[in-house]
Amino acid sequence: MTTKQQLAQALKQNFGFDSFKGNQQEIMLSLLEGHDVFVLMPTGGGKSLCYQLPSLLTEGTAIVISPLIALMKNQVDAMRNFSTDDGIAHFLNSSLNRAAIDQVKTDVLSGKTKLLYVAPESLTKEDNIEFLKTVPISFYAVDEAHCISEWGHDFRPEYRRIRPIINEIGQRPVIALTATATPKVQHDIQKNLGMGDAVVYKSSFNRPNLYYEIRPKTSQTDHDIIKFIKNREGKSGIIYCLSRKKVEELAELLKLNNIKALPYHAGMDATTRSANQDAFLLEQVDVIVATIAFGMGIDKPDVRYVIHYDMPKSLEGYYQETGRAGRDGGEGHCLTFYSAKDLKKMEKFVQGKPITEQEISKQLLAETAHYAESSVCRRKTLLHYFGEEYTADNCGNCDNCLNPKKSVEAKDELAAVLETIAALKDKFKAEHIIDVVTGRETNDVRSYHHEDLDVFGSLPKTDRRYLNSLIRQAIISGYIEREIENFGLVKLTPAGEKFIKHPTSFRMVEDNEFNEDEEETPVKSGAACAVDPELYSILKDLRKKTAKMNNLPPYVIFQDPSLEAMATTYPISLEELQNVPGVGAGKAKRYGEEFVKVIKAHVEENEIERPADLRVRSVANKSRIKISIIQAIDRKIDLDELANTKCMEFSELLDEIEAIVYSGTKININYFINEVIDEDHQEDIFEYFKEADTDALGAAIKELGSEYTEDEIRLMRIKFISELGN
Length: 726
What we know:
CATH superfamily of the largest domain: P-loop containing nucleotide triphosphate hydrolases
Structural class: alpha/beta
Largest sheet: 7 strands, parallel
Strand content: 5-15%
Strand order of the largest sheet: 3-4-2-5-6-1-7
CATH topology of the largest domain: Rossmann fold
Number of strands: 18
Shape: globular
Helix content: 40-55%
């Protein structure tokens, strides 16, 4: 019987499949022939089988190096399900006690165990190295191999030690597998594992069934998510958040709105975390709200949507996490909420780390921002990032392709940019190129005397955003290369050199508009955001009247987003009104009666059926963190100290306090204000808010001038709203 026939027979006998997927069979044959093998295969392509099946057909035990304990446990359980003997697969990691470790070693030495999963940390332990030297090893499999590269999205320094340890234990063929790797990361993996001669198998990164969509993050995002999920009742979904705090809050909000959801993050105790994961796999809940720790190796084929509440730190992370949707080839909606402000926060997280690490992180975040803001086909951008060309102009399954923007002719601008790159000899980043081409004399430009070049100021009036977009689209079109691993330097390709000599038509689409207001997350405001513009207009008039009666600016009564929500969810009782963002019990009681009466009359008059899925219940007023902040302020705790104890930036603490006072709760922070803001400044800012038409921070900073800090203005705005509005 040939090896091919043996593989086919073993596939049917052990796993119940009639045929291989993609190039699985070729990968296995290469490994069985004794070659080192590098496998780049997207999530859902069947990577695990590429080493599981060969392990059953070879003498000895295959050592699988894997980074996550949860992933090992799942894979070991899966292998045991396919076999009559539990000893066929084991894992060796820190979760095992001495007796369990002894049992594993006994099974391995008896020859029962064909697959031994080991964490890289366990592999480096001296007693484990000595034990493995006594074991006949069939081959080594390095799973999640991108962890080797600093340029991967999940760098693990211990992965760098794998090759020296393999050399010490005993050389056998190595198969390295990953679902996400740019050409640079692939090179790093092969170099670090000493497998330059490996047979390389790359599957296409294109997942045609996945729909990619980016929306701006706004004050209505929680509401949008609830609506999105309720329209897909009974379908499985994952929501990724960057912080554990947001995971807990969002899971609680979903449950409050009758959505079966559970949280999952590394801060939970292992038993609860594992139980929540199992509940999702067994379909006892529809939604898991998680940090990125969730989903590695979770083989749930029918996840119908993946929502990113926060933009991921890299496109590798984004691709891997969205790849958990639609693994069965069915529907998979990948929805991401984007705010440039979130990425700026992430940049701060790496401050204090080595410069190289900071620079790498900055480059990865920049690529993520480019992807989110671009109007180019999402598929085209994503596949290009992973070194694959997508030739179709319209994939028909992403937001940009279904709502295409008009293209504009950019031949002259592209020629000017390419000539500038040539003049700078391929040694500078896009930002510097744009400074030169627009004639901006920065310190860097002057230090290199680039203001003396002929190309300096060749596009003086062209918008920077437009030029950034032009450069990105020229990269995708093959005129420019960005050397990400060389900190983003851009250089001409042969096609770019040819374009300079013989320019041809170059049409580009301008980026999506994401308002980058420093104060607030991008949010459109007004009637356009309300389901019922007529009601919104009525409520605005009522607010104006109420404000006049109370001698207050209208925004003190209710802010615009609260009116928008009222004109969308139609609250007809004070209890329902309290669930509107920015309206707490105090505000509802003080001003709500008239508003509820007007809404009720409007609903009855127009025979409006209030859709249940839009009546979003809010947990904002029940939030434990807000209660603890109010209690701390009552005890006159210094706000800087309070921010430290809550592990928050000072500005994040102010966000929480603002939410408290805007919901109608009265608090007194005079004890802190009197310590940090002089009396004249207090008076000036307070008077400004009395006269102002808006409470927007940007407008206040502009009007008051630079001698007043942002924190001073925010603190006084809190005092103003609390004293006069609540």
